[in-house]
Protein backbone atom coordinates (compact mmCIF):
# COMPACT_ATOMS: atom_id res chain seq x y z
CA UNK A 1 0.00 0.00 0.00
CA UNK A 2 1.15 3.52 -0.77
CA UNK A 3 0.23 5.90 2.03
CA UNK A 4 0.36 9.65 1.40
CA UNK A 5 -0.14 12.59 3.72
CA UNK A 6 -1.87 15.54 2.12
CA UNK A 7 -3.86 18.70 2.62
CA UNK A 8 -7.10 19.68 0.94
CA UNK A 9 -9.31 22.67 1.75
CA UNK A 10 -7.17 23.41 4.79
CA UNK A 11 -7.50 19.91 6.24
CA UNK A 12 -4.67 17.39 6.65
CA UNK A 13 -5.27 13.66 6.20
CA UNK A 14 -3.67 10.38 5.20
CA UNK A 15 -4.83 8.46 2.18
CA UNK A 16 -4.09 5.26 0.29
CA UNK A 17 -2.83 6.02 -3.22
CA UNK A 18 -4.67 4.02 -5.86
CA UNK A 19 -4.14 3.70 -9.60
CA UNK A 20 -1.20 3.18 -11.90
CA UNK A 21 -1.32 6.03 -14.40
CA UNK A 22 0.04 9.34 -12.99
CA UNK A 23 -2.95 11.18 -14.43
CA UNK A 24 -5.45 8.85 -12.77
CA UNK A 25 -4.09 8.50 -9.23
CA UNK A 26 -6.65 8.95 -6.46
CA UNK A 27 -6.48 8.99 -2.67
CA UNK A 28 -8.83 6.87 -0.58
CA UNK A 29 -8.95 8.82 2.68
CA UNK A 30 -7.87 6.83 5.73
CA UNK A 31 -9.94 6.75 8.90
CA UNK A 32 -7.36 7.27 11.62
CA UNK A 33 -3.60 7.18 11.24
CA UNK A 34 -1.35 4.61 9.56
CA UNK A 35 0.56 3.85 12.78
CA UNK A 36 -2.41 1.96 14.23
CA UNK A 37 -5.28 -0.12 12.90
CA UNK A 38 -7.17 1.92 10.31
CA UNK A 39 -9.85 1.62 7.68
CA UNK A 40 -10.25 3.14 4.25
CA UNK A 41 -13.20 5.52 4.20
CA UNK A 42 -14.17 4.94 0.58
CA UNK A 43 -14.10 8.71 0.07
CA UNK A 44 -11.75 9.32 -2.83
CA UNK A 45 -10.14 12.49 -4.14
CA UNK A 46 -7.90 12.91 -7.21
CA UNK A 47 -4.25 13.28 -6.33
CA UNK A 48 -4.14 16.27 -8.67
CA UNK A 49 -6.59 18.14 -6.40
CA UNK A 50 -4.51 17.93 -3.21
CA UNK A 51 -1.16 19.18 -1.97
CA UNK A 52 1.20 16.39 -0.99
CA UNK A 53 2.87 16.92 2.38
CA UNK A 54 5.87 15.11 3.86
CA UNK A 55 4.53 11.57 4.26
CA UNK A 56 5.38 11.66 7.98
CA UNK A 57 6.39 14.27 10.54
CA UNK A 58 9.29 12.54 12.29
CA UNK A 59 10.30 13.25 15.83
CA UNK A 60 13.82 12.63 14.56
CA UNK A 61 15.62 11.67 11.38
CA UNK A 62 18.60 9.39 12.03
CA UNK A 63 20.91 9.43 9.03
CA UNK A 64 23.77 7.17 8.04
CA UNK A 65 26.96 8.43 6.43
CA UNK A 66 29.26 6.63 3.98
CA UNK A 67 27.13 3.50 3.63
CA UNK A 68 28.08 3.02 -0.04
CA UNK A 69 31.74 2.29 -0.79
CA UNK A 70 31.91 4.26 -4.06
CA UNK A 71 30.41 7.34 -2.42
CA UNK A 72 32.92 7.23 0.42
CA UNK A 73 35.71 6.90 -2.15
CA UNK A 74 34.49 9.77 -4.32
CA UNK A 75 34.77 12.15 -1.36
CA UNK A 76 38.24 10.89 -0.55
CA UNK A 77 37.27 9.05 2.62
CA UNK A 78 38.41 5.66 3.82
CA UNK A 79 35.89 3.03 2.73
CA UNK A 80 34.21 1.53 5.82
CA UNK A 81 34.13 -2.21 6.39
CA UNK A 82 30.88 -4.06 7.07
CA UNK A 83 32.14 -4.70 10.61
CA UNK A 84 32.70 -0.98 11.32
CA UNK A 85 30.15 0.92 13.36
CA UNK A 86 27.90 3.00 11.06
CA UNK A 87 28.43 6.75 11.02
CA UNK A 88 25.23 8.27 12.41
CA UNK A 89 23.97 11.83 12.62
CA UNK A 90 20.66 13.66 13.03
CA UNK A 91 18.61 15.90 10.82
CA UNK A 92 16.05 17.92 12.80
CA UNK A 93 12.32 17.76 12.16
CA UNK A 94 12.49 21.36 10.88
CA UNK A 95 14.60 20.15 7.94
CA UNK A 96 11.78 17.98 6.56
CA UNK A 97 9.80 19.04 3.48
CA UNK A 98 7.62 17.14 1.02
CA UNK A 99 7.62 16.50 -2.69
CA UNK A 100 6.97 19.71 -4.59
CA UNK A 101 8.27 21.90 -1.76
CA UNK A 102 11.27 24.14 -2.36
CA UNK A 103 14.81 23.57 -1.13
CA UNK A 104 16.04 26.96 0.10
CA UNK A 105 19.74 27.43 -0.71
CA UNK A 106 21.34 28.36 2.64
CA UNK A 107 23.02 31.75 2.76
CA UNK A 108 26.06 30.34 4.60
CA UNK A 109 27.02 27.89 1.84
CA UNK A 110 28.40 28.09 -1.69
CA UNK A 111 28.39 24.35 -2.43
CA UNK A 112 25.05 22.58 -2.07
CA UNK A 113 24.92 18.88 -3.01
CA UNK A 114 22.15 16.34 -3.60
CA UNK A 115 22.24 12.87 -2.00
CA UNK A 116 19.54 10.42 -3.11
CA UNK A 117 18.66 7.89 -0.41
CA UNK A 118 16.22 5.16 0.57
CA UNK A 119 14.41 6.17 3.76
CA UNK A 120 13.01 3.74 6.32
CA UNK A 121 9.82 4.86 8.11
CA UNK A 122 9.30 3.43 11.58
CA UNK A 123 5.79 2.19 12.36
CA UNK A 124 5.84 1.55 16.10
CA UNK A 125 7.74 2.60 19.19
CA UNK A 126 10.79 0.37 19.54
CA UNK A 127 14.03 -0.02 21.45
CA UNK A 128 16.73 -2.70 21.39
CA UNK A 129 15.14 -4.39 18.38
CA UNK A 130 16.49 -7.89 17.70
CA UNK A 131 17.47 -8.60 14.11
CA UNK A 132 14.63 -11.07 13.58
CA UNK A 133 12.02 -8.44 14.53
CA UNK A 134 13.28 -5.51 12.45
CA UNK A 135 10.56 -5.96 9.81
CA UNK A 136 7.91 -5.77 12.54
CA UNK A 137 8.82 -2.18 13.47
CA UNK A 138 8.97 -0.78 9.92
CA UNK A 139 5.90 0.86 8.40
CA UNK A 140 7.46 1.20 4.96
CA UNK A 141 9.88 3.09 2.76
CA UNK A 142 10.06 6.41 0.96
CA UNK A 143 12.47 8.52 -1.10
CA UNK A 144 14.79 11.02 0.55
CA UNK A 145 17.32 13.65 -0.43
CA UNK A 146 19.98 14.30 2.20
CA UNK A 147 20.74 17.79 0.90
CA UNK A 148 24.19 18.82 2.14
CA UNK A 149 26.16 22.04 2.34
CA UNK A 150 29.40 20.32 1.37
CA UNK A 151 31.71 23.26 2.01
CA UNK A 152 30.27 23.70 5.49
CA UNK A 153 30.62 19.97 6.17
CA UNK A 154 34.33 20.17 5.33
CA UNK A 155 34.93 23.43 7.14
CA UNK A 156 33.12 22.69 10.40
CA UNK A 157 34.18 19.02 10.71
CA UNK A 158 30.79 18.07 12.13
CA UNK A 159 27.55 17.92 10.23
CA UNK A 160 24.84 19.64 12.25
CA UNK A 161 24.59 22.82 10.18
CA UNK A 162 25.76 21.26 6.91
CA UNK A 163 23.00 18.67 6.89
CA UNK A 164 20.43 20.05 9.32
CA UNK A 165 19.44 23.41 7.87
CA UNK A 166 15.80 24.15 7.05
CA UNK A 167 14.54 22.29 3.92
CA UNK A 168 17.56 19.94 3.84
CA UNK A 169 15.49 16.75 4.18
CA UNK A 170 12.95 16.28 1.38
CA UNK A 171 10.86 13.11 1.89
CA UNK A 172 8.17 11.59 -0.32
CA UNK A 173 6.09 11.37 -2.29
CA UNK A 174 4.50 8.68 -0.08
CA UNK A 175 5.32 5.63 2.03
CA UNK A 176 5.30 2.24 0.30
CA UNK A 177 4.45 -0.45 2.85
CA UNK A 178 4.72 -3.54 0.64
CA UNK A 179 8.32 -3.52 -0.55
CA UNK A 180 11.47 -5.63 -0.33
CA UNK A 181 14.22 -3.01 0.05
CA UNK A 182 17.15 -5.36 -0.50
CA UNK A 183 17.67 -4.75 -4.24
CA UNK A 184 16.20 -1.48 -5.50
CA UNK A 185 17.45 1.05 -8.03
CA UNK A 186 18.13 4.55 -6.65
CA UNK A 187 18.41 7.37 -9.17
CA UNK A 188 18.88 11.12 -8.94
CA UNK A 189 18.42 13.57 -11.80
CA UNK A 190 18.99 17.32 -11.91
CA UNK A 191 17.03 19.14 -14.61
CA UNK A 192 16.43 15.74 -16.22
CA UNK A 193 20.12 14.80 -16.36
CA UNK A 194 21.10 11.65 -14.48
CA UNK A 195 23.57 12.28 -11.66
CA UNK A 196 23.28 9.21 -9.43
CA UNK A 197 22.41 5.60 -10.21
CA UNK A 198 22.92 2.85 -7.67
CA UNK A 199 21.32 -0.15 -6.03
CA UNK A 200 20.53 -0.88 -2.40
CA UNK A 201 22.48 -4.14 -2.76
CA UNK A 202 25.61 -1.96 -2.56
CA UNK A 203 24.92 -0.75 0.98
CA UNK A 204 27.77 -1.62 3.35
CA UNK A 205 25.44 -2.04 6.33
CA UNK A 206 21.97 -3.50 5.78
CA UNK A 207 18.71 -2.04 7.03
CA UNK A 208 18.62 -4.75 9.69
CA UNK A 209 22.12 -3.73 10.81
CA UNK A 210 21.10 -0.08 11.01
CA UNK A 211 17.89 -0.60 12.99
CA UNK A 212 19.64 -2.89 15.47
CA UNK A 213 22.54 -0.45 15.87
CA UNK A 214 20.39 2.66 16.30
CA UNK A 215 17.89 1.11 18.72
CA UNK A 216 20.67 -0.11 20.97
CA UNK A 217 21.08 3.55 21.88
CA UNK A 218 17.70 5.21 21.50
CA UNK A 219 13.98 4.68 21.26
CA UNK A 220 12.47 5.18 17.82
CA UNK A 221 8.92 6.51 17.65
CA UNK A 222 6.20 6.00 15.04
CA UNK A 223 7.02 8.23 12.07
CA UNK A 224 10.73 8.45 12.82
CA UNK A 225 12.91 8.08 9.73
CA UNK A 226 16.25 6.40 9.03
CA UNK A 227 18.23 7.59 6.00
CA UNK A 228 20.32 4.68 4.75
CA UNK A 229 23.12 6.47 2.86
CA UNK A 230 23.67 7.59 -0.71
CA UNK A 231 25.32 5.94 -3.72
CA UNK A 232 28.09 7.62 -5.71
CA UNK A 233 27.47 10.57 -8.00
CA UNK A 234 26.66 13.36 -5.56
CA UNK A 235 27.07 16.79 -7.04
CA UNK A 236 26.18 20.47 -7.00
CA UNK A 237 22.80 22.13 -6.97
CA UNK A 238 22.20 25.73 -7.99
CA UNK A 239 19.23 28.07 -7.63
CA UNK A 240 16.62 27.17 -10.25
CA UNK A 241 17.57 23.48 -10.45
CA UNK A 242 14.91 20.79 -10.22
CA UNK A 243 16.22 17.70 -8.44
CA UNK A 244 14.36 14.37 -8.55
CA UNK A 245 15.01 11.20 -6.56
CA UNK A 246 13.42 8.06 -7.98
CA UNK A 247 13.46 4.70 -6.19
CA UNK A 248 12.23 1.51 -7.79
CA UNK A 249 8.90 0.40 -6.35
CA UNK A 250 8.22 3.72 -4.60
CA UNK A 251 8.07 6.69 -6.96
CA UNK A 252 9.69 10.07 -7.50
CA UNK A 253 10.45 12.88 -5.04
CA UNK A 254 10.84 16.22 -6.83
CA UNK A 255 11.98 19.57 -5.44
CA UNK A 256 13.14 22.86 -6.90
CA UNK A 257 16.03 24.87 -5.47
CA UNK A 258 15.26 28.51 -4.68
CA UNK A 259 17.18 31.40 -3.16
CA UNK A 260 16.67 31.59 0.57
CA UNK A 261 14.53 34.60 1.33
Structure description:
With 261 residues, the protein is mainly beta. The protein has two domains: 2-52, SH3 type barrels, CATH 2.30.30; 61-259, Fumarylacetoacetate hydrolase, domain 2 (Alpha-Beta Complex). The protein contains four helices and 20 strands. It has helices spanning 69-74, 150-156, 160-164, 207-215, and strands spanning 2-8, 11-18, 26-31, 39-46, 51-52, 61-65, 87-91, 96-97, 102-105, 112-114, 116-122, 138-145, 148-149, 169-176, 185-190, 193-199, 225-227, 235-237, 242-247, 251-259. The strands form three sheets. Strands 1, 2, 3, 4, 5, 6, 7, 8, 11, 12, 14 and 17 form a twelve-stranded mixed beta sheet that branches. The protein has a five-stranded mixed beta sheet with strand order 9-20-19-15-16, with no helix packed on it. A hairpin with a 3-residue loop joins strand 19 (242-247) and strand 20 (251-259). The longest helix has 9 residues, at 207-215. The termini are far apart.
Quick structural gist:
The chain has 261 residues and is mostly beta strands. The protein has two domains: 2-52, SH3 type barrels (Roll); 61-259, Fumarylacetoacetate hydrolase, domain 2, CATH 3.90.850.10.
